[in-house]
Amino acid sequence: MRNDRMSRWAVMFAGLLLTGQDAADPQPVADTKFSYNRGFYDTPFTALIQSKTPGARIRYTLDGSAPTPTRGLGDASPVTVRVESTTTLRAMAYKVGMRPTNVDTHTYIFIEDVLKQPYGVEGFPHPTLRTGFRPHEKVILDYQMDASVVDDPRYRSAIRKGLRSIPTISIVLAREDLFGEVEASDDSGLDMRRSGVYWGGGRQGKNLTRFRGAPLRVDAATRLSGGRRAREPQLVFGQAGAQACPPPVSERVPVG
Fold first, then answer.
1. What's residue 73's pLDDT?
2. Is the pLDDT of residue 225 over 70?
3. Model's pTM, two decimal places?
4. What residue spans define the domains of the chain?
5. Tens digits of per-residue pLDDT, 28-41?
6. 32, 185, 205, 254: which sits with the fewest CB atoms below 10 Å from its CB?
7. Are 222 and 207 in contact (CB under 8 A)?
8. Is the pLDDT of residue 219 over 90?
9. 216-226, strands of its sheet edge to edge
10. Closest C-alpha to 64, from 92, 87, 33
11. How do 138-140 and 168-172 pair as beta strands?
12. CA angle, corner 17, sides to 12 and 21, nearest 5?
């Protein structure tokens, strides 16, 4: 009899522990799944995004920023997104009482868009941007491919094949994370650490996608190096990201 009572108490105690653990560590929502994988495309399509978790809702963005349960488009399950041009599609799934997913990013590149990208891009600095080193010093921003090359009959056909053949990396982040300016609290100028990557600020957890062979997605931090005449973006991987991203990329970027 005593052993039976002890057994019942043990089962009840184990049940209380399990309930407490569930409350502290809610079950995760199943990851988002995209009907079209990241990569190069020639024709428009409609991407379907869904999660296997019943009742989970999808949020997505098209501006490079990370969606959250309270921010982004969609807020339904599943969601469909019409893709007719180069698009960075970021999505996550959530459900009340459960742990939301991470943000998945798929970049769809249309070669014709790359070839015809204009000299100035809406929403981005143009045509000049100050360097941040001297009050009136500026750099000229040019977003387009050289028209003399793109329109040259000698390269017109080869250039499309060439763009697909070279290793391509898509780094996706919000425009403010790249060019955003945050003034220092003491009115001494820009707060470089809190401003965008262009000004020297680092941005953690930005999505990196590799195109060539099997597409790969990992998270990395982004920062800029160099002086006022030449600035080059750098990627910084955590240990997991460095292991996931194969050479030669992972051999040329810092870890940690």
1. 97
2. no
3. 0.74
4. 167-256
5. 999 999 999 999 99
6. 185
7. no
8. no
9. 168-172, 203-211, 216-226, 231-236
10. 87
11. unpaired
12. 145
Query: In this structure, what token pair is assigned to residue 8?
Result: 């019942």
Distance CA 39, CA 83 (A): 12
State how far the Cα of 76 lies from the Cα of 57, in Å rounded to an integer.
Answer: 5
The amino acid sitting at 162 is G
Looking at residue 172, its pLDDT comes to: 87
